[in-house]
Amino acid sequence: MKKANQACGTVCPIPPLEIGVHLEMAALTRQKVEVRAQKVQHLKQQIAAGTYDVSAAEVVRGIVRSEILRLLTMARARSHGM
Fold first, then answer.
1. Which residues, 6 or more positions from 49, have their beta carbon under 8 angstroms from its beta carbon?
2. Where are the strands (E) in 14-73, listed by range?
3. Which end of the chain is less packed: N or C, by CB atoms within 10 Å?
4. Predicted structure pTM score
């Protein structure tokens, strides 16, 4: 596999270690997507069956996680002048 060297316009071979890292990252990403899809499917089945039960603590954790992400995103946007 080769990649272009943007600085000088030449094509340089990608070191085998770098190829391995890219392949491993791609595999992990696919695995993560598949696991998430399975979890969503399981939750949809539970909701449809009326057996989905969530604790108040889980709801609170989700709200807090979401709010922290929103605040971090806002702070990052401000720091980049957006």
1. none
2. none
3. C
4. 0.48
